[in-house]
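From the pipeline queue, job 12 of 40. The input is one protein chain; the requested action is below.

Action: predict structure.
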Amino acid sequence: MTYRESEKIELKRSTAELKEAVISVSAILNKHGKGRLYFGIRNDGEVVGQEVGAQTLRDVSRAISENIEPHVYPSVEEVRLRGKNCILVTFGGRDAPYLAYGRAYIRVADEDRQLAPAELGRMFLAWGDEASRWESQLSTKGPRDVDAKALKGFVARANRAGRIGFASGSTRTALNKLGLLSGGKLLRAGEVLFCDDNPLEIQAAVFAGTDKRTFLDIKQFKGDAFGLLIKSETYLKEHLDWRVEFGGIERKEIPEIPVDALREALVNSVCHRDYRNPKGNEIAVFRDRVEIYNPGDFPAGHTPEDFLTGRERSILRNPLIAETLFKSKDIEKWGSGLKRIADECAEHRVAVKFEVIKTGFLVTFARTPVEADGGPRLTDTRKGRRGSTEKSSEKSSEKILRLIGMNPDISAKELAQQVGLTSRAVEKQIDRLKKDGRLRRVGPDKGGHWEVVG
């Protein structure tokens, strides 16, 4: 086989030319969306070989993924060519324009030329086209792979929120009305939202100290987006410290970090992540903090502070997913997520930090130091001494209806865990919802299920 450079193939003598190679990758992506790069072959086609080790392969992968924006995650492997060790890099992407070291290049024949501003502007317009987005592409799954129960629960919640006006009907009809089908085929947004088998996964862990050296628990959650949000929220509640507060005769447990702020951060992490990135979302509970991470670049030219003022308009990576979450009221208002988190934490005197890091976006909630013996903190406080953080009855009722809509078989004990009330308080809320005609029990107490009305 003869090796020649072309508009889709780049040859480098060795990894000493790594920076030039990164530029070539971005230029080829901007012109063709995919290509190959070899280390160990001179530009005249002669195979000279390259020293290859595990660290070499990691260095190549890291250089490409960290120095090209939007991020690219290539395949990097050792290959044997004409009896010599070489490196083959295979890459692809549909998020042009790609910038290497902050500049845009285009492939012309076998050369990399810096893009003119006018051409770069045209590429940015094309990048914003809905059809080019990952979520708008056709899924390999179909409507039959959708969890009909999850979809029906979503439609009920969206109707209660007043943000849609149609009954669930058939799975295909509901998906079509939600804009999650194209030509009768499921879009990737629909796959993430309503299919159990999809690219979204969340890794959750509890660590013994303030670093990742020793973990006490680790879990990996898979499933549709709405189910994952419930699992993630429940996991955090189970591993936070709580205090007890009494208002009259009712006992209320208060978390060290407001659950509404955690929930908002979780929803944002699912909504705004980069689904092309194989890396999953992460939840990390440390002794002194809780971190919620998603692999998604922050909007270019913006900082978290721009959105904390409440004046900046939302910039959506996944508008179809965001729109669906908005309809069920999981997102209250576009572009307001960071401000809502900050306001909720300020109200409860919890420090929160928003960071744009090289691999994504990180929200960090500070924890109140635990007791010296490392045991759980559960302190009784009386209403009036430290101020009540009790949520309104109406707000709790809406949470109960939302959770029942997602899982009609949920028990009162599970509801209590996820809402943050005692089992007795939840039972009172359920009784009132039944009297108000908003909730009914179908079948016997054991073996039956709940049904949200209206």
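Job complete. The chain has four domains: 9-128, 136-196, 201-390, 391-454.
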